[in-house]
Amino acid sequence: MVLNKGTTAVLFAGLLSTVGNLAMAAESVNFVSWGGSTQDAQKQAWADPFSKASGITVVQDGPTDYGKLKAMVESGNVQWDVVDVEADFALRAAAEGLLEPLDFKQIQRDKIDPRFISDHGVGSFFFSFVLGFNEGKVGANKPQDWSALFDTKTYPGKRALYKWPSPGVLELALLADGVAADKLYPLDLDRAFKKLDTIKKDIVWWGGGAQSQQLLASGEASIGQFWNGRVYALQQDGAPVGVSWKQNLVMADFLVIPKGAKNKDAAMKFLANASGAKGQADFSNLTAYAPVNVDSVARLDSVLAPNLPTAYAKDQITLDFAYWAKNGPAIATRWNEWLVK
Q: Which of 227, 235, 289, 232 is nearest to 46 (CA)?
């Protein structure tokens, strides 16, 4: 075959395109989250559309493990690219040099609620800790606020609480003991632990969302502290569970990139997509967790309104994760000592 200049140019262009496509196909992002229905929704709303649009494969991993993330960074062998973490950990990990700074040429910082953005992390979603209960266990007298957790006479059975030393449990104990919402911080640790002592033998600890759902749906725990989206998912599946939004405690997850991530550029693209208006709205519509992107509200399913934290602002208390970022390690020491007493 005789090749002229035009033919050669076309073939060369085709070769470059093929090489480019192969390079793009070879790109990947290892995404780590908490498992269960939340990660399923993150895959559906973020990972699958992102892969289709970009050609970058998103590999699901988990659950999130802070000790493992820190060990990876310190060893220089980072296997994770994007990790869904709690807000207080995101702030603390950044201060410890464990995270990559974000590229705000790709991520639209001005479109993110300022409560849920930092130099090293962008909100994944925000949510509320709510009082959830198994309707078959509590009877007709529905629990109203956190004080119900400590009323074992009216509401017998096990209490499901989040086992990690992070925002939520100590605050709800203080609220149940009569502390006003605007007087929570700095936390009165002595008072909080004394209150928790009263139900310690009745507590079943959960460490991840899927476990919390199992405890509540099965009735192993009659009442407890849950992420609102996990209770919503159970209700959608027809589980006999109810919820009280009174004194709901607002917290957020952040998406971060561990320092030394092997696929940092692809990870940054993933973050830009996940924090965009469409990605945030799509995730919220699947989970009833609230979007961090201010342009997502118009895209939300109106049927979800009664299940979103944004509908309960009057009964809402925003947890101070900056306080926890600073004081968390000291609180964790005391927390772990209390657990084994």
A: 289
Write out the two tokens for 271.
Answer: 């973050």
State the pTM of this model: 0.79
Q: What is the pLDDT of residues 283-307, one digit of tens each?
A: 999 988 999 999 998 899 988 878 8
Instruction: Using DSSP bridges, classify how beta strands 241-256 and 82-86 pair: parallel, antiparallel or unpaired.
Output: antiparallel
Question: Cα-flanking dihedrals φ and ψ of residue 121, to 5°?
Answer: -160, 145
How many angstroms separate the CA atoms of 267 and 258, rounded?
10
The tokens of 218 are what? 């099965």
Please, what is the Cα angle at 235 between 140 and 158, to 5 degrees?
Answer: 55
Which SS3 state, helix, strand or coil, does residue 241 take?
Answer: strand
pLDDT in tens, 59-91: 999 999 999 999 999 999 999 999 999 999 999
CB 335 within 8 A of CB 163: no
What is the H or E stretch that residue 5 is in? Answer: helix 5-26
Collapsed DSSP state (helix, strand, coil) of residue 265: helix
Q: At 316, which amino acid appears?
A: Q
Give rounded-to-5 percent helix, strand, coil for the chain: 50, 20, 30
| Rg, the chain, Cα only | 23
